[in-house]
Amino acid sequence: MRSRRLSLRLIPTIFACSLIIFAAPGSAQTQQIAKNTIEASAELSESTNPSKTVSAELSARPNLSRVGVQTAQPIPLSVNDAIRKALESNNSIEIARDDVRFQETQIRSLLGFYDPVFNVSPTYTRNSNTGSAATNDFNLNADMTHFIRQGGGNYQVFFNNARTENAFQQAQLSSGSLGSSGAGATFFSSSGIRYTQPLFRDFRIDNTRRNIKIARRRLEQTDADFRRQTIDIISQVQRTYWDLVFALRDQQNRVANLNLAQENLRQVEARIDAGAAAPLARAEVATELANRESDLLISTQQISVTENNLKQLILKDATSMEWSQSYVPTDRPAFSLDPVSLDDAIKDAMDNRFELRRLKLASDINAVDIDYFKNQTKPQIDLNTAFSLEGFSRGGINNEFATNVFSSRQELLLFNGLNDVRIRQGLDPIRNETVVIPAQPGFLFGGLNRSLANIFRSDSPNYSVGVTISFPLRNRTAKANLAGARIQQNRIETETRAQEQVVIVEVRNAVQAVETARQRVLTSRRARENAEIQLEGERRLFDSGRSTTFLLFQRENTLTNARNAEIRAETDYNKSLADLQRATSTTFELNNIVVDSPSNDK
Asked: Which of these, 389, 386, 390, 439, lies nearest to 187 by C-alpha position?
C-alpha cells in the first residue's frame, strides 16, 4: 500500500509587511501592517514627556499582555505556511486519512479469499477389539484449494496416502481385489484434482466479488470524504487567518485612537493649567480615554481567541511549545476588481464537489447490488469434475502356497461329519484335495514405494463429470432483495438532485458574498478617506477654538471605525474567496496542493 501523503507546493510570495502602517492625521496615507501585541503596546507607550500636571489617567496605561503567550519573539506566518501546518498536523485531517488507510486494509482482507489454501492432515489410528489383534492405521492427506475470481469456480489439488492393517479398510481401499485374509498392511495412494464451476448463478458475480466491488467504491467514498474534510479544514484555516489579521489591525487602530485621546488629555491639562479651560473638561477627556482603553482590551482579548482558534487548526499536540508563542501574519489581504463568473463557478462545483462524487459512488454500489440480486434469482447449476490417479500395494511376502480345500477347524468338522454320513450310506468319502494358490502379481506388493509407483500405471486413471442443480421453488428472498435495491436506487437519485440544489445554493451565495465584499472594500476605502479629511478639518477647527472636544472625539472614533470597516471588508473579501473555493472544491488546485490517491489493490 502506498502511504497516503499530502504535499503542498506553495507559490513563493514575498511581502515586506502584512497590512497598512498607521498614519497620523494630516500625513500621507501609507500601508499598515498587522502588529503583534508587544509592538502595539510599544506604540501606545510612545509619547512626549508629560508635564507635572498630567493626570493619573494619562500615566495609567492598559495592560496588553496576553495570558500564557510570550510576545517577545513572535512567529511570522503566511497563509501558505498555515495551510501546510494544517495538512501536516491537523487532527481531523489525520483521522480522515486513517479512515482511508483502514478502508484499504478492508479490500486486501476481502482479496485474501482468493489466496490458495494448503491443508495437510496426518492421522494415526489404533483399533483394538476383544478377541482380535489390534490394528494400526496411518493416513497422510494433503491438498491445496484455490478459488478463481474469473467465473467464480474453484479447484482442489490433492495427494492422499494411507497405511492400514484393518481387513475391512483393506477391502474398501482395494475394492475387494486384495481380499481380507492376508497378513500385513495395505498401502493406498491417490493424487488428482477436483474442479467446480458455476454455470448460471454465481458465474458472473457472487457474494465475494460483490463485496470486493463495493469495498473498492467505499474506498473511493472514504477518499472523497477525506478530500472534503481537508478542504473544510483549509477553508477554516484561511478564514481564521484573516480573522487574526483583522484582530491585530483592529488592536493597532485602537492603540492609535487611544494615543489621540492621550494627546487630547495633555492639551486639556495644559489649558487647565493656563486657565484657558475649566477643570470639568478633564472629566470629558478622561471618560473617552477610559472607553478607548476598554475597547483596546477587548480587541486584545479577541486576538487571543482568534489565535487560539488558528492554533487548534494547525497544531497537533496540546502541549506544543507554539501554544505559548504568538503569530504575526505576513500576508496582506488580496483584492481584485474582476467579478466572479457564476456560470463557471457552478460548473466547477458540479464537476468537483465531493458530496456529489460520494452520491455517484453510492449509485455505483447500489448498481452492484442490483446486479448481484438479479443473478441470485437464477437457478444454481454447477459443473463438478474430478480426475485422479490411484495406486495401492501390500506389504509382506508374495509367494505361492498350498492348502487343502477344507483347512479351518470348522470346515474340517463339517468335512469329517459329511464323510461319516456318506460312509454309513455306502458312498465313497469326499477327498480333501490340496490346492496350490499362485503368487499375486508383483506390482501389488512392495509397500509405500510400490503404492506411489502404481499411481502412474496406465490402468490407474479415474475421472468423473457431474452437474449439481439447485433452485428455491419461489425464491422470495432474492426477489425481495432485488426490489429493495431498485427502490434504493430511486432514493439515491432523489438525494443526488437534492444535493445538487444544495451545491448550487452554496455557490450562488458564495459568489454573491465575493461580489458584496468586493463592493464593500471600495465603499469602505472611500469612507475611510473621507473620515480622514473630516478629522483633519475638525482638528483645525478645534485648534482654532471653533469646535468642541465632543465633536473631535466623534471624528476620531468615526475614523477608527472607518479603518476597521476597511480592513474588515478586505479580510471578508479574502474569507469569501476561501468560501468560494470550498463551495466549488477548487481549493487544492488554487493553492497548489497535490493529494495522492489511495492504493487500489487489484
From this structure: 390
Phi, psi of 36, rounded to the nearest 5 degrees: -80, 180
Instruction: Judge whether residue 17 has pLDDT over 60.
Output: no
AA identity, residue 557: N
Residues 342, 414 within the same domain? no
Instruction: Supply the DSSP string of 508-520, one letter for each residue.
Output: HHHHHHHHHHHHH
Long-range Cβ pairs for the range 287-290 (8 Å, 24+): 288/261, 288/264, 288/549, 288/553, 289/57, 289/58, 289/258, 289/261, 289/262, 289/265, 290/57
Average pLDDT, the chain: 83
Q: Which domain holds residue 411?
A: 400-438
Residue 206 is predicted with a pLDDT of 94
Are 333 and 412 in a shared domain? Answer: no
72-96: b or e for each residue (b if 16 or more CB lie within 10 Å)?
eebeebbbbbbbbbbbeebeebeeb
The DSSP call for residue 34 is -
Residue 52 lies in a domain: yes
Mean pLDDT value of segment 217-224: 95
Same domain, residue pair 540 and 494: yes
Other C-beta atoms closer than 10 Å to the C-beta of 453 total 14
pLDDT tens for residues 451-490?
777 777 767 788 999 999 998 888 899 999 999 999 999 9
Whether 19 and 332 have beta carbons less than 8 Å apart is answered as yes
For residue 239, is it within any domain? yes
What is the Cα–Cα distance from 188 to 525, expressed in whole angstroms? 100
Which residue, of 385, 409, 438, is where some domain finishes? 438
Cell 483633519 belongs to which residue?
536
For cell 482395494, name the residue.
Answer: 174
Q: How many domains does the chain have?
A: 2
Over range 139-158, report the average pLDDT: 94
Q: Residue 390, SS3?
A: strand
- Domain-located, residue 192: no
Are residues 482 and 433 located together in one domain of the fold? no
* Whole-angstrom distance, CA of residue 410 vs CA of residue 69: 112
Give me the residues paired with residue 188 across strands: 162, 392
What per-residue confidence (pLDDT) applies to 440? 59
